[in-house]
């Protein structure tokens, strides 16, 4: 994805091992009207894929790969409850999880919000049909809660960074978000799983140096890696 001259986003692709880029056909991917720096991500799992782009003002563009490798219009996870910018994590081509803020940016509480939800609260949203539909899962936190990195190495296993005061902890749930435990203390800049058991994260220290941490048991335990 790259910003284009019309204020939107263009998607390009190239064969692996080559430098032959071409513009991919997508529905219009607009740019934000203001707010923080625009960002976006591709989420790939098997032959399935999803893209989202936007900033703290919300999701401004999204698309999904169909069975023919084409990007087609797709409704992102948080669209019905305020359209907060949320990059989903996919554990299988069918199972996705996202983090949604009720009301998003400067929007009222939606009638589609989960029962008992309050404006500004943060909830998990889950899909078991490849992102065609998302349903609300457990609440993560009330208004003012701040969550960062997100990963889901297997269905029902969810890891999310949680900012508390001046620190951050990596929280994990192994039952679909019902129960949570802190599995690492530190500010994670990125979190990636290359299999259901093996994952890596980059942690930033207070003096702005970074280190690599790894898990080999699906996120239960993490340890620094020395090169």
Written account of the structure:
The protein has 227 residues and is mostly beta strands. The protein has a domain at 145-227. It is built from no helices and 20 strands. The chain has strands at residues 2-3, 9-10, 12-13, 22-23, 39-45, 48-55, 58-65, 71-73, 89-90, 96-101, 122-127, 135-141, 146-154, 157-164, 167-173, 181-185, 187-193, 199-204, 210-215, 223-224. Strands 5-6-7-8 form a four-stranded antiparallel beta sheet, with no helix packed on it. It has a four-stranded antiparallel beta sheet with strand order 9-10-11-12, with no helix packed on it. The chain is globular. The protein starts with a strand and ends with a strand.
What's a quick, concise take on this entry?
The chain is mainly beta and 227 residues long.
Return residue spans where pLDDT drops below 50 for at least 5 consecutive residues: none
The first-to-last residue Cα distance is 32 Å
Largest sheet: 4 strands, antiparallel
Task: Please state the oligomeric state of the protein chains shown.
Answer: single chain
Give a topology summary:
Layout: E1 2-3, E2 9-10, E3 12-13, E4 22-23, E5 39-45, E6 48-55, E7 58-65, E8 71-73, E9 89-90, E10 96-101, E11 122-127, E12 135-141, E13 146-154, E14 157-164, E15 167-173, E16 181-185, E17 187-193, E18 199-204, E19 210-215, E20 223-224
Antiparallel strand pairs: 1-2, 3-4, 5-6, 6-7, 7-8, 9-10, 10-11, 11-12, 13-14, 14-15, 15-16, 17-18, 18-19, 19-20
